Amino acid sequence: MSDTDAPDSSDGPAPSDADGPADWLVDLRRDLHRHPEPAWREFYTTNRIVEAIEDLEIDGLSLFVGPEALDLDARSGVPDETELAPWRERAREIGVPEDRLETLDGGRTGLVARLDRGDGPHVALRVDIDGLPVTESDADEHVPAAEGFRSENEGAMHACGHDGHATIGVGTLAAVADSDFRGTFTVCFQPAEEIIGGGRAIAESGHLEGVDELIAIHLGLDHPTGEVVAGMDGILAVRQIRAHFEGETAHAGKHPQAGRNAVQAMAAAVQNLYAIPRHVDGVTRVNAGRVEGGTASNVIPDSAVIEGEVRGETTELKEYMSDHADRVLEGAATMHDCAVDVVTTGEAPSADSDPELRTVVAEAARGTVGIDSVLDQAPLGGSEDATFLMRKVQAQGGRATFVDIGTDHPGGHHTGTFDVDEASIAIGVDLLGEVVRRLGGS
C-alpha cells in the first residue's frame, strides 16, 4: 500500500516514530501489544482487528466474526465463565461495543476475512492472535516499556509475536486487495494457539473448503530479521494432559496409615513420566510443567494435579508417548491406592510443508526487499496447531507450508523480555503479498 492508502488511525494509538508506509502497521501492532489477551479471551483483540480491516474499505470482502469463524464444538481449553468475565469486562471498559461482546461471549473469539476477486485459486493465510500468561518486563532497555506500549494487562503479554502475526495478516489482506490477484483469498485470525485450542475449530469451520494453497506463519524462532524459512520442518505432534489424583486425607502424625497420599502418587508419576523410553523412529518429548497438591505439612494430601505434555516427531510417536503416559499415570495412582482422572486439554498432529509451495515462497523471498537470507527448510522443534489447517487442506488435494519470517528478538519466546523487530512486519507483508499474488490467477 502507498501512504495515501493507509487507513485513518485516529481511533487507534498515537502515531509511531517510524517513517514510511508501514506506520499504520506499527501502530496496530503496538496497540495489540498493549492489550494482550490469553486463549479464548481475545475480546479486544478480535474487535480491534475487525476495526482495522473495516478501515481498509476493501471491495469484495466478507468478514466472519466469532461463531461464524469457528466450529464451536471443535474448540478445546475454553475457560469457564469466572475466567472469561473479567476479560470481557476489561474489553468493555476500553471501548469494545456491547453487540460485539455479545457475539464473542463464551470464548467465541477470532475471525475470518475472505476476499473474492473472481475466478482463480483459493489461497489462505493463517495467523494466530492470542497472548500468554507472562508478566512483561518493565526494564528501561525493553522497547515496549521504553516507548510506552508495554502490556496494560498485568500478567499477560504478547511474548511470542502474535501481535505481529495478526498485524501481518491485516497488512497482507490490504496488499492483496491492492494487487492484480484473481481468485479467493482467506485470512484466518485464529484464537487459542498457545493452548493448542483453536486450530481444529478453524480447520473444521468450513472456511477451508476448496482452499488450494495454505500458508501459516510465525515470527522469529531464532531466525534474525532479513531471514526467511520457506517451510518449517520438525513440527512436533503434541498432547497436553491434566491428571488429577484423588486420595484420602488423614492426620500425618496421629493416623498416617488412614490416609491415601495423592502427592505421593503424583510424585511417582512425575518420576516415571520422564522414564518413558525414547523411540528409535524419531524425536519424542515429555514434560510435567505444573504440579501441585496438599494443604499443610501435617495433613496427608487427598488431591494433587499434574499439567504436562507429550510430543512426537510424528503423530504416531506422539501416540506412543501418550499410551505410555496414560499407563504411568494409572500405575502411579494404583501403586498408592489413589484414583486418577486424566483429561486431554489440547492436542495437535504433526504436519509437513509441501516442497512445491516452499519453492514458491523461496523464490518470492529472494526478490523481496529486506530479505537477505532464504532457507528452504529449518526445524521448528516445537508444536503448532496450524497443523490441523495444513492437514485439512492437504487432505482435500491442496498444498500447505509453515513459513518463518525472521525477526531480531532480544529475549527468547515466552519470556518477559520478548519483543519483535518491527521492520520484520513490513517484510512479512511484502513477502506474503507477493506469494499470494503469484499463487493467484493474476
Short description:
The protein is α/β, with parallel strands linked by helices and 442 residues long.
Strand count, sense and barrel status of the largest sheet are: 8 strands, mixed
Instruction: Report helical residue fraction.
Output: 25-40%
What is the top-level CATH class of the largest domain? Answer: Alpha Beta
CATH architecture verdict of the largest domain: 3-Layer(aba) Sandwich
Q: Give the percentage of residues in beta strands.
A: 15-25%
**CATH fold assignment of the largest domain:** Aminopeptidase
User: How many strand elements?
Assistant: 14
Describe the model.
This protein is an alpha/beta fold and 442 residues long. The chain folds into 2 domains: 3-235 and 351-439, Zn peptidases (Aminopeptidase, 3-Layer(aba) Sandwich), CATH 3.40.630.10; 238-348, Alpha-Beta Plaits. The chain contains 12 helices and 14 strands. The protein has an 8-stranded mixed β-sheet. The protein has a 4-stranded antiparallel β-sheet with strand order 9-11-7-12. A two-stranded antiparallel sheet has the order 8-10. Helix 8 (262-273) packs antiparallel against helix 9 and helix 10 (355-366) crosses helix 12. The longest helix has 21 residues, at 315-335. It is globular, with a radius of gyration of 23 Å. 53% of the residues are buried. The model is unreliable at 1-21 (pLDDT under 50).
What attributes does this structure have?
globular, Alpha-Beta Plaits, eight-stranded mixed sheet, Aminopeptidase, alpha/beta
